Amino acid sequence: MTSSSTSSRGRGLLHLAAAVDLPGVHDIGPHVELARLAERGGLDFVTLDDSFARPGPDASAVLAQAAPATHRVGLVPTLTTTHTEPFDIQATIATLDRVSRGRAGWRIDVSTTQAGEVADAVAKSWGSWEDDAETGEVPNPVRVVDATEGHARSTAARHADVALVRATSSAQARAVRDQLRSDAAGFGRDPDSLRVLASLLIDLGDGEHAAEPGHGGGGPRPTARGPLYRGGPVDLADLIASWHQDGTVDGFHLTPVEPRRDLERLVNGTVGLLQHRGLFRTFYPGSTLREHLGLTRPAHQYVGGAP
Questions:
Q1: Are 199 and 166 in contact (CB under 8 A)?
Q2: Tens digits of per-residue pLDDT, 17-46?
Q3: Of these four, 36, 92, 218, 293, which has the most CB atoms within 10 Å of its CB?
């Protein structure tokens, strides 16, 4: 890799995010505790998936409760476009953005081809709100899209601020990243306005005693739930550093297999080591999620590209 674009990518800031899902747990308190732990590690944002089948409050309500208990970490719930009207999405995320003082994001469920249309409609509604805003509190959430599947990549290239990619090798992740950047440019966007994060399940229960040497046995392994890293915090730090420094990705979105245990080991072990090596920040440089990600405010009535 000798191109200037690849070199500049490798020098970019490392971004880290984590899921705070707790399967079977319906109380808000434990989710808030995980969000606070992620903030202690300086993570850019946390995500929480939603399910209409599970009891208890929805993801946006949970993270709205986490907002006053945290100060810097971004809060990104999943909102499903197939069951929610654009106006309701706009209102929900705008409320979260307000109570968190600019730390809200929206993880767009791209399970249908209508997702891009809904994202368009929501963006336009925010643009219209800017025309009529009297308080200056114009919602400015970050849009996150899982771009692993081919049908989702166009939506991500056109609308996303952050694209998540499930990959079992650096070559696979780099190929998707390059495609997303190229497609974003085709939609009239600056490719540097898109952050691409590799998504991994992490199982840190083995400490430093992985079954085989290397990154959890040679790298992430494919599973039914997605690429899985199993091993110790030090090897995970090495994997993160190598994939980021060679320009493969802008960072990582990590889903703990055992939420409390693995997130704590991620923060105290992996993140601490990356900070010690000077590869990850030790404090938040700003207060909003866009500032964490190094993203500028979108243009007025921005809809991610040409109609």
A1: yes
A2: 999 999 888 899 999 999 999 999 999 999
A3: 293
Residue ranges of alpha helices (H) inside the chain are 4-10, 28-40, 59-66, 86-99, 115-132, 150-159, 170-186, 233-245, 259-265, 272-276, 289-293
Longest dimension (CA), the chain: 60
Q: How far apart are CA 221 and CA 209, in angstroms?
A: 17
Residue 169, CA distances (Å) to 173, 211, 226 in order: 6, 19, 12
Coil, strand or helix at 37? helix
CA distance 102 to 10: 28
Rounded to an integer, the average pLDDT of 84-99 is 87
For residue 239, the SS3 value is: helix
Q: Are 269 and 233 in contact (CB under 8 A)?
A: yes
